[in-house]
Design a protein that fits this description.
seven-stranded parallel beta sheet; 14 strands; Rossmann fold; 412 residues; 2 domains; Saccharopine dehydrogenase NADP binding domain-containing protein; Sacchrp_dh_NADP-bd; seven-stranded mixed beta sheet; Saccharopine_DH-like_oxidrdct; binds NADP nicotinamide-adenine-dinucleotide phosphate
Length: 412
């Protein structure tokens, strides 16, 4: 599909480049993608774009500098003309407001697309509206390619492959433990989380289902925690059911499972469960209460109003230098699908990125776009449609390792 697009003016356009995550993504591109990349930064404010372009030039003066494209994505015709000029589009706009506009423009102009949208409610809606059309047009749409849910999806994909390669076995469960992920959110993240309150209780309840985004249903029933919401794993240690994005990541990974044959690849009994590392039951219970309190704060109207007084607004986020010095780390165990669980071969996997969640996100977005641009090898023979980060498979893993991430698997 990309072969007839080589005459396009840009290899890559970043739409929403002036936002908090967009700026980090553009910076990663300037620092790490090939210096002859033809690219553009797009947004609705010329002043912000000029300021960003000046910063990018200072950082990397010897590369092709990005063109500036001023566009309000609600102006469909202008957006369409822009997207038509690019082979790949990274979208980092406020997805709940204007995410669909960019997706539609990409399908119409056969431009591959990648974003970090994480709301399962929006992704479900986009699957219903755009998956078939994108598949027919041969356009790739990859969502959730940020700190949530790219490393989780790729660790799972790599572990499943390891069990298949070494033991010719399918996977029964992937248990993931979040070791470290800073919880200072950006204004855009807060806004997305608050959007959930706009949906009715019934819809929110349905969105919790493990197979909500998958084309077929799997067999998961429980997340194996005890009365206190705790689980113990012999390799991962104490785990509490308090990982803030466990539901989103599980839905995305189960979509990968479903798209890759609904069991033919990962296994018919596969399920994904995510937890936070907890040093003791008391610490785990505290983590669970903390996560619940954050959820209530961001969804119940009077509490939301109070929260808004001290949380960052759209465009803002944690101090960039501070964010850069955080670390994202997670580890996982994949358990083979055999009758005797105790004798089941296991694969231990580990991911670490030397930067906070927003720098991790910028790296995944930029490297994911590079994978689409330079290789475009899609797992499972996919030709297009609404896919997940794991569809970029080994190529994205190599690229992310190339910019300092550790992503490894070993038999244990
Ligand atoms: N999955 C993950 O791991 C992950 C990680 C990071 C972020 N995210 C998600 O990414 C999204 C962005 O977060 P953020 O913190 O970067 O938000 P942000 O700083 O508020 O940035 C939003 C961007 O959208 C642009 N925008 C909004 N409406 C527009 C319009 N009509 N036309 C053109 N541009 C428009 C804004 O432009 P202006 O600059 O002109 O206002 C800004 O550039 C959020 O939904 C967040 O949840 C996900």
């Amino acid at each position: 599909m990309s072969k007839d697009k080589s005459d396009r003016e840009y290899d890559l356009v970043v739409v929403g480049a002036t936002g908090y995550t967009g700026t980090i993504t553009a910076t990663h591109i300037a620092e790490h993608l090939p210096t002859n990349l033809k690219w553009a930064i797009a947004g609705r404010s010329g002043v912000k774009l000029e300021a960003l372009a000046a910063e990018l030039k200072k950082l990397s003066p010897d590369r092709l500098q990005p063109a500036i494209e001023i566009v309000d994505v609600e102006d469909k015709s202008k957006l369409s003309s822009l997207v038509k000029k690019a082979r790949v589009c990274i979208s980092v706009v406020s997805y709940h407001h204007v995410g669909a506009e960019v997706i539609e423009a990409c399908i119409k102009n056969r431009t591959d697309y990648i974003d970090t949208a994480g709301s399962v409610l929006h992704i479900r809606n986009w699957i219903d509206k755009y998956h078939k059309a994108a598949e027919l047009a041969g356009v790739v749409l990859i969502h959730s390619c940020g700190a949530f849910s790219a490393p989780q999806d790729l660790l799972t994909w790599a572990s499943v492959r390891e069990l298949a390669k070494k033991f010719s076995m399918k996977t029964k469960e992937l248990v993931l433990s979040v070791v470290s992920i800073a919880s200072d959110p950006s204004g855009g993240t807060i806004e997305s989380m608050m959007e959930r309150g706009a949906f009715g209780a019934e819809v929110l309840e349905k969105a919790q289902q493990p197979w909500y985004l998958s084309p077929t249903m799997g067999k998961q029933s429980s997340n194996s925690t005890n009365f206190f919401g705790m689980r113990h794993d012999s390799f991962l240690g104490g785990l509490s059911a308090s990982a803030i994005n466990a539901v989103q990541n599980r839905a995305v990974i189960h979509r990968t499972w479903g798209l890759l044959g609904g069991g033919k690849d990962y296994g018919p009994n596969f399920q994904y469960n995510e937890y936070k590392k907890a040093s003791s039951t008391l610490a785990g219970v505290f983590q669970i209460l903390n996560t619940r309190a954050i959820g209530l704060l961001l969804t119940i109207p009077p509490l939301k109003a109070i929260a808004m007084m001290f949380l960052p607004v759209p465009g803002e986020g944690p101090d960039l230098e501070k964010e850069k010095n955080y670390r994202v780390e997670m580890e996982a165990v994949a358990i083979a699908d055999v009758d005797d669980d105790k004798a089941a071969p296991k694969v231990y996997s580990h991911f670490a990125y030397p930067g906070g969640p927003y720098h991790t996100t910028g790296a995944f977005l930029a490297q994911g776009a590079a994978s689409l641009l330079y290789v475009r090898k899609l797992e499972g023979g996919a030709v297009g449609g609404l896919l997940t980060p794991a569809f970029l498979g080994a190529d994205l893993i190599e690229r992310i390792q190339g910019v300092g991430a550790e992503l490894s698997t070993k038999i244990v």
